[in-house]
Amino acid sequence: MTAAQWLADYDETLARAAASARMASDRLRQVGGSAISPRGEVQVLVGASGALEDLRLTPAARTLEADQLARLILATAQQAQRAVGTQVVEIMTGYLGDGPALEFVKDHLPAEARPARDDDYFTNPPEITR
């Protein structure tokens, strides 16, 4: 392989990497999540960062005590944030592949946005309220 061919191959590799990074960046900008509480009293929308962007309460929310409603809002927002985390992990898996870089991304997601793992259910079972 000549130096010119090596340089052309290297330029092509860099161009593919740049295109892949742009595509991942574009997809990450579109990330968002929404969730509705089990009985529909609360609906939330969160953006790519997991920040709350919209909150809707149905008339059924008025039947809840203030502390119950607060917990329900938080739980519903966390559900939407996990959806965002799942999307981020899927996008970054396509960009980075499995490996230490992807684990770094997962480890640095906010706790609320980390996708649930199979063993999380038993470590942190959901709170059941009536």
Automatic annotation (TrEMBL):
Gene3D superfamilies: Nucleoid-associated protein YbaB-like domain (3.30.1310.10). The keyword DNA-binding applies. Keywords: DNA-binding. InterPro entries: YbaB-like_sf (IPR036894), YbaB/EbfC (IPR004401). GO terms for molecular function: DNA binding. It holds the Pfam family YbaB_DNA_bd. This is YbaB/EbfC DNA-binding family protein.
